[in-house]
Amino acid sequence: MDIDTRLLRYFAAVHEEGQLTGAAARLSVRQPTLTRQIRQLEAQLGVELFHRSRAGMTPTAAGAALAERVGPLLADWTQAVRAAQEAADPAVGTLRVGFEGSIINLIGRSTIEDFGRRMPGWRVRLRQNNWFDPTSGLGTGEIDLTLWHAPSNITDRYACADLGSEERWAVLPADHRLADREELDLAELLDEEFVAGPREAAFWRDFWLAAEERRGHPVRIGAVAHNADEWLTAVACGQGIGFAPRSMSQLAPRPDVVHRPVRGLSPCRVGLYWPLGRPATPAMAAFVRSCRATVRVDGTAGGTAGGTIEIGTIEGGTTARVGQTELNGAG
User: Fold this and answer.
1) Residue 73 CA: distances (Å) to CA of 18, 127, 324
2) 172 with 161, same domain?
3) CA-CA distance, 129 to 100, in Å (whole number)?
4) SS3 state of residue 275
5) Is the domain of 122 the same as that of 141?
6) pLDDT tens digits, residue range 203-254?
7) Is residue 79 part of a domain?
């Protein structure tokens, strides 16, 4: 049976979003078009993939089985297409990079221009991370690497080229009862309502709610946001407070929110991440160098820690190397 891969991508988006409206917006298609495509896929497969209700789209047993397999299938196809294109012209290609959101995006024009000098003819395609996918597209192969503010234990699953570390600060509405304080203690924030990410964000949701530091203290959720911009707007509107990288105070200043350091909260590990076991490429190594030269983390340009990147293999740890060239500097 021949199936258009576009139908599978549409199915995957609906499954991840849990509703047609969000999936249509993510895919930049009209909702009636998306509905027809899902119906077409169901007709070709001869099964019903979703239960429809006012609450959204819930996968049937057949839909759940397909969803479990469609991610790796699409990733393999994407890699096959890229391999064919790069084999035809190995000097020209596209590096796909994820970023966390417009309000905390550390990658700028200087990074892209620096990469262009290191990899002439190559392009960088930037994609904002999807909060409904904990891998941000790394799991499906939609992106090559992504910049994350992440928990330190994430290197159990991902290789990392470190850029530095950054404190997690509290973000409060400007009229909050604690807004006038210069520094806060985690214990006095635990009973506040928080703006959270969706449940699908999994360990990311827990990290930004300080689940580990709470030591079992329950979380009160005031609102759920689906991306970084929604999150900051919800905080500004008084729907809850939250934790965010310290740099947000400089990257996204607003008169209706305040940012305060928090005692008792561990920092983020800032770096470029990709799945363990996935071969690194010269383009990925070049982008690491460009970020080390241009990205400022916690007031400094570039990171100092690092794992080992060997072209064609990935070794766990934190220093990046191509051949014999260390990636700790900008060279």
Assistant:
1) 20, 21, 35
2) no
3) 5
4) strand
5) yes
6) 999 999 999 999 999 999 999 999 999 999 999 999 999 999 999 998 889 9
7) no
Percent of the chain whose pLDDT exceeds 70 = 86
Residue 240 identity (one-letter amino acid): G
Number of structural domains, the chain? 3
- Shared-domain flag, residues 280 and 234: no
Q: Any long-range contacts for 12-16 (C-beta under 8 Å, 24+ apart)?
A: 12/67, 12/70, 12/71, 12/74, 12/140, 14/38, 14/50, 14/57, 15/57, 15/59, 15/63, 15/67, 16/130, 16/132, 16/133, 16/200
Q: Are residues 12 and 124 in the same domain?
A: no
- Output the pLDDT for position 24: 84
pLDDT at 138 over 90: no
Taking CA atoms, 297 is separated from 169, 201, 245, 257, 271, in Å, by 14, 24, 10, 22, 10
pLDDT digits (tens, 9 = 90+) for 194-205: 999 998 888 999
Can you give the CATH number for the domain in which 63 is found? 1.10.10.10
